[in-house]
Design goal:
Distance between the termini: 24 Å
Structural class: alpha/beta
Strand order of the largest sheet: 1-9-8-5-4-2-3
């Protein structure tokens, strides 16, 4: 699904040198590379505070801890996403409230959001799925009206832009009270192990979170808040510092591949291609979709056959996601009604994600699309 080796080969000398420098310095934890990456990412995102941590799941959990959410508080998020989003809500003894998504963008459905809010609701977690932002302008309005926190799950959309109706442009993860991301190797900005980060423009909240990621310490052996052990190590930070200046280039390479796919499939009735919330298509002039995944909908009932056909032809592909969270054994709840998840229940039977990365050549893309088109004839 991703060509990490090909990407590495292009920056091998810089990556190898950065790793060796950390090893020779022996500053493996909270070393200069971590602080340097923090500053670099703050500048890129135009956000006041970046707090690196060990992984994207920790970022979500610590972000919620920093906001002081209490046991039983309801947190609304989407049913169609990876389990980490709801996992941390449950781990903190908060009450997850799952809602449906939009059929075109796969992001949070606003009508479902409004319907789900109760006096116990304390936070909303929009997931910027597959590489584009949820409708943050409206989500922020709803949150303000009900005095709710907004925690952006940006694990799949780092680098994406969101444009407000007044023309203001913000990066994914910088609009809510807290933003979080993952640097898992396959992400648009990925390290060579686990890594994550938390973003906020609230200086007081950032101070709290900085202590939380390091056992609650601001001074060694003095524990002012209850914390965890969640630190981005220096080797991963050094790798990310090399890759961050290339992030926009990486995202454009993904959009180029997405445009190729879309053009190849545009006249095929059984294929519904991804759309951009802002543009409706994949244009050359904006950065509103960064295509962490390129996810089709196969509308003729042959999704599973196509999935296997591609595998038989050595073409990686995946079904993100085959089981909705409300049907997962860990998160079943008698409050949920199947009629409230009509879109999610349709998506799990139709979505198919194709290979998506930065190292494609035209021959590879042509082979993938021809294999699909020949099968669907």
């Amino acid at each position: 699904m991703v060509d990490l080796k090909g990407q590495y080969e292009k920056i091998k000398s810089e990556i190898d040198s950065s790793i060796i420098n950390v090893i020779e310095s022996t500053a493996y934890i909270n070393g200069p590379e971590v602080h340097g990456f923090q500053k670099d990412l703050e500048n890129y995102l135009d956000v006041k505070n970046v707090i690196p941590c060990a992984n994207g799941t920790d970022a979500l959990q610590i972000g919620m801890m920093g906001l002081g959410l209490e046991q039983g508080d309801e947190v609304i998020t989407v049913d169609f996403t990876f389990a980490a989003t709801v996992e941390v809500i449950a781990l903190l003894k908060l009450t997850p409230v799952l809602i449906d998504v939009e059929k075109d963008t796969f992001n949070m459905d606003l009508d479902a959001l409004k319907k789900a809010i109760t006096p116990k609701t304390k936070a909303i977690v929009p997931v910027h799925l597959f590489g584009q932002c949820a409708n943050m302008e409206e989500i922020l309005k709803i949150a303000k009206e009900h005095d709710l926190y907004v925690i952006e799950d940006t694990a799949q959309a780092i680098g994406a832009d969101y444009t407000f109706s007044d023309g203001t442009v913000k990066k994914a993860g910088t609009m809510g009270h807290v933003g979080t991301t993952s640097f898992f190797p396959s992400k648009n900005l990925g390290c060579y192990g686990d890594g994550g980060a938390i973003f906020t423009n609230d200086d007081d909240l950032a101070h709290t979170i900085r202590g939380m990621v390091n056992h609650g310490m601001y001074r060694r052996y003095y524990h002012d808040v209850v914390g965890v052990n969640s630190r981005l190590d220096s080797i991963q930070a050094a790798i990310l510092r090399i890759k961050l200046p290339l992030l926009d280039e990486y995202c454009e390479a993904r959009r180029h591949a997405a445009r190729f796919y879309n053009n190849a499939f545009e006249n095929i009735n059984s294929i519904i291609t991804p759309t951009s919330q802002k543009c409706g298509s994949i244009c050359d002039t904006c950065n509103c979709h960064v295509f962490h995944q390129y996810t089709l909908k196969i509308s003729n009932g042959r999704r599973d056959e196509l999935h296997q056909h591609l595998l038989d032809n050595n073409i990686p592909n995946a079904i993100y996601y085959p089981v909705p969270l409300h049907s997962q054994k860990a998160y079943e709840d008698e409050r949920y009604n199947e009629v409230d998840f009509a879109v999610t229940n349709e998506l799990i039977g139709t979505v198919l994600s194709l290979p998506m990365h930065t190292e494609f050549d035209e021959e590879q893309l042509a082979f993938i699309t021809k294999t699909i088109l020949d099968f669907l004839k």
